[in-house]
Backbone:
């Protein structure tokens, strides 16, 4: 038994441009770019063109050997998430929820390129796109690692850069919602709505169905 190493992220030490390999690698069953000790050829940053000044984010995964075949264990905690999921299933959501709300959400441990939660609650911030009823909402995961592609809609909140990952939009039970964070600015929300309509559904935003109606400002939230 030995460890196999994967590079999850390369960051330029000059301009801090990120090269995130994790999401793309998951399509092939890996958790990052496989690392070999002969790795270390010339690295040139796409953004600032500086050479060989990088910060690597590694993850080590146990490797099993069975005959001539080798299989890499997944680092995902499916068993831990299953226990937490049973608790959430039995819980009851009694708070108010509306479009534009940003919450910590127990997205859990999922398959392939599906967005996972992190830490002990398997959580990730999400944006509520539409409320269907008290039990179900349509959400988009948020990330602090924006990418330059049509499925990441970049925005800033309190000076920090984020993006809404519209390709990961999904329906969830409100039992997954853990803690309210803030109400997103209307102009940013409309920008994300427009991207969803145009990129995901390939339709103009004027044709979208109306949002759920109801009480707008519970607990003084605006």
Residues:
């Amino acid at each position: 038994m030995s460890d196999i190493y994967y590079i999850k992220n390369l960051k330029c030490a000059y301009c801090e441009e990120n090269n995130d390999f994790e999401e793309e690698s998951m399509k092939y069953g890996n958790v990052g770019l496989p690392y070999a000790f002969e790795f270390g050829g010339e690295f040139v940053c796409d953004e600032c063109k500086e050479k060989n000044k990088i910060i690597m984010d590694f993850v080590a995964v146990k490797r099993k050997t069975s005959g001539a075949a080798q299989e890499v264990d997944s680092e995902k905690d499916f068993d831990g998430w299953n226990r937490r999921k049973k608790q959430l299933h039995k819980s009851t959501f009694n708070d108010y929820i509306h479009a534009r709300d940003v919450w910590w959400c127990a997205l859990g441990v999922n398959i392939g390129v599906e967005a996972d939660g992190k830490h002990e609650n398997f959580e990730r911030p999400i944006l509520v796109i539409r409320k269907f009823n008290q039990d179900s909402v349509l959400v988009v995961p948020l990330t602090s690692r924006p990418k330059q592609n049509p499925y990441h809609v970049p925005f800033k909140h309190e000076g920090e850069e984020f993006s809404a990952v519209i390709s990961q939009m999904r329906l969830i039970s409100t039992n997954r919602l853990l803690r309210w964070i803030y109400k997103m600015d209307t102009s940013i929300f409309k920008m994300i709505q427009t991207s969803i309509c145009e990129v995901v559904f390939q339709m103009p935003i004027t044709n979208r169905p109306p949002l759920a109606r109801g009480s707008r400002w519970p607990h003084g939230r605006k």
